[in-house]
Every structure is written in structure tokens, then in C-alpha cells.
From TrEMBL:
Keywords: Oxidoreductase. Residues 18-119 form the Rhodanese domain. It comes from Populus euphratica. One of its GO terms (cellular component) is nucleus. Gene3D superfamilies: Rhodanese-like domain. It catalyses: [glutaredoxin]-dithiol + arsenate + glutathione + H(+) = glutathionyl-S-S-[glutaredoxin] + arsenite + H2O. InterPro entries: Rhodanese-like_dom, Rhodanese-like_dom_sf. It is an enzyme of class 1 (oxidoreductase). Its EC number is 1.20.4.1. GO terms for molecular function: arsenate reductase (glutaredoxin) activity; protein tyrosine phosphatase activity. The lineage of its organism: Eukaryota, Viridiplantae, Streptophyta, Embryophyta, Tracheophyta. Transmembrane segments: none annotated. This is arsenate reductase (glutathione/glutaredoxin).
Amino acid sequence: MSRGISYITGSQLLSLRRLPNIAIIDVRDDERSFDGHIAGSLHYASDTFTDRISNLIQEVKGKDTLVFHCALSQVRGPTCARRLANYLEEVKEDGGIKNIMVLERGFNGWEAAGRPVCRCTGIPCKDESA
Ligand SMILES: [Zn+2]
């Protein structure tokens, strides 16, 4: 059985992102340091994503919905979402993760729509934007 990956729009995510069951996973690479990020998002760069996948699963314990994005959510975001879905299938364990989603239009679309961007340099994000 294959897990589906669905898409979420920026406006949907804007209203849902503060829910405690949602984790936002930013898989951009170096751009995160320069371009800001969605407040509270976790950073798992696409180039090391596969190696860190078990860390990710630990870090999102208790969240049932993961929203992936990269700059445009055309390549890296969906690819990493798919890798996670495949990994969960292989290990036959879902870690409580029910929904794997991709943010439509990615971070660039989020920012272009005037949605809030956090520019903290904290790891993890200090979530300084409102
Ligand atoms: Zn931040």
C-alpha cells in the first residue's frame, strides 16, 4: 500500500500552522540562511535528508501532519516527502504520522503572497515572527 502525498496551499497552512499536531519541514539547502523561513519550521536540507530521516522522525514525535516545502516545492520538497513516505513503508512503522503534505508554490510563493517570514538565525527556529 502506497502512502499518498497531498498538497496544501499557503492560505490553508497559514491558518493551520500553529496547531500542535503540525510540523513544517523546510528542505531547502543554503537558501534558508539568506532568505528567511516560515516561523517554527524545521530544517532538513535536501542534500542530507536521507541520512537524517530517522532524526526527523524523532523530532516530529507527537505530530501527525508533516508539511514539506523547498523554494518552489517542485522538486526537492515533493522528493523528500516521497522519501519519507517510502521510508515509513519500509520500516513498517508510521511514527504516528498520518498526513504527508507539500506546500504548494513553496517558500517563494509563501513570501510572495506577503505571508509572515521569520529571519531568526536560531537552530531550531526561535519563531520571532508573529
Ligand atoms: Zn526563525
